[in-house]
TrEMBL record:
Keyword Transcription regulation: no
Every 4Fe-4S ferredoxin-type domain range: 1-30
A GO molecular-function annotation: metal ion binding
Coiled-coil zones: none
Keyword Methyltransferase: no
Full protein name: Ferredoxin
Alphabetical UniProt keywords: Iron, Iron-sulfur, Metal-binding
Amino acid sequence: MIELLLDDRCTQCNRCVDVCPTNVFDARPDGPPLIARQADCQTCFMCELYCRDDALFVATDCEHVTGIDAATVLEAGWLGDFRRDSGWDEWKDDPRYANEHWRMDEIFMRARALVSP
């Protein structure tokens, strides 16, 4: 679930607002987008994939808010991990970051269990 939008890293491009399939964010004319409907987040990671500024953090728990803080995420170096590990965009030609979306299996399996009879 979307956990953080770091205002100081955000360039207000609003890509996260545009790509979110469940309209979690609200654009603001005078600042970074707001996480307005966190509970609607489907943990699809689209916002994190499209954020070239690594200003967003999506936690892998798709059902609960973890309450993780920015200091912990920054210290762990987690900002932008999913984008790099998926080989997305500017990382696609860097052999250090080949597509490793398989690391998301736990989330995909959990989502599948929720919709399976």
